[in-house]
Write a structure and sequence with these properties.
287 residues, mainly alpha, 74% helix, globular
């Protein structure tokens, strides 16, 4: 996919998701052993399954075979993005890894790191990012602005030409989507909680942004991305324009499914509990 890239850099970037997934899974498993066993064992069982499912999705869609397919087929590359943002991200969030992955480390070390992050002037930028992410509206803007910006032809072609830029692109997609899903699902480390009616608006808004991007791709009279337009041959003999229209279809239909599920769940919660915080259903059922 990156013929002009340095081989060693490409190998490191390609292996990074797998390494991160393995480390995260190990920390999550070890951290789970120190968790006090709860009465409702069923809940504790599906959370790890979601977390592992999210990590597996992350590894599969960033693997070398998938990457190679994404290099010659636009619709495969779009599938990567959708899977990262709307399958891997929400599944990881549902696993609630926020404190669990930190439990294997000594308490003294965790307190030192927390104090450093909270007070050091060197971590000021991180604190600003954290405060921004803690605001649902800004998390919405960051995720959708990142999605649109990376699909600008110049940025998209740059990602296809460089393994480092491509890795950054995927990191932005996954990280911003995970933060936003944490707000939508009410399972993040944030104090502010969305009410069900707001979840409906945010989920519908994210879906509409995807539709607008899909509309631009589908209605374009010519291929928008030079990388795919320059390819001499593609699998199945598909044209660059038809490939682009298929990518639009991926963004239009499959990408709408997770947002629709979140929207319907929020509507159900609102009808059942009234305009209360979206996460209250779990609180009520645990009493």
């Amino acid at each position: 996919m990156f013929p002009n890239a340095n081989l060693s850099v490409g190998v490191v970037v390609d292996r990074a998701p797998l390494i991160v997934a393995i480390v995260a899974a190990m920390l999550y498993a070890i951290g789970g052993r120190s968790t006090v066993r709860r009465r409702r064992v069923g809940i504790d069982r599906w959370r790890p399954a979601c977390f592992v499912g999210g990590l597996l999705t992350l590894v599969v869609v960033t693997s070398e075979p998938f990457d190679q397919a994404a290099g010659v087929l636009f619709w495969a590359h779009m599938t990567q993005h959708v899977a990262l943002m709307e399958i891997a991200a929400p599944l990881v969030v549902l696993g609630r890894p926020w404190t669990r992955v930190g439990r294997p480390f000594p308490l003294a070390l965790r307190r030192t790191v927390a104090r450093t992050l909270a007070r050091s002037r060197w971590t000021l930028a991180l604190r600003v990012v954290a405060r921004t992410a803690a605001t649902p509206s800004l998390a919405f803007v960051l995720m959708n602005a990142g999605l649109v910006a990376w699909h600008v032809p110049a940025a998209y072609d740059a990602a296809l030409a460089s393994p480092v830029i491509h890795g950054v692109e995927h990191l932005v997609f996954f990280a911003t989507a995970a933060v936003f899903w944490a707000h939508l699902l009410g399972r993040g480390p944030f104090r502010r909680r969305l009410v069900a009616t707001t979840v409906v608006v945010y989920a519908a808004g994210a879906m509409v942004v995807g539709w607008m991007l899909a509309l631009v791709l589908a209605e374009a009279a010519r291929p928008l991305y030079a990388h795919y337009d320059r390819l001499v041959a593609r699998p199945g003999g598909i044209s660059a324009l038809a490939d682009q229209q298929l990518a639009a279809g991926v963004m239009w239909v499959p990408a709408s499914v997770p947002w629709t599920m979140a929207l319907l769940a929020a509507v159900y919660a609102w009808l059942r509990l009234g305009p209360t915080p979206f996460h209250r259903e779990n609180e009520v059922s645990s009493r």
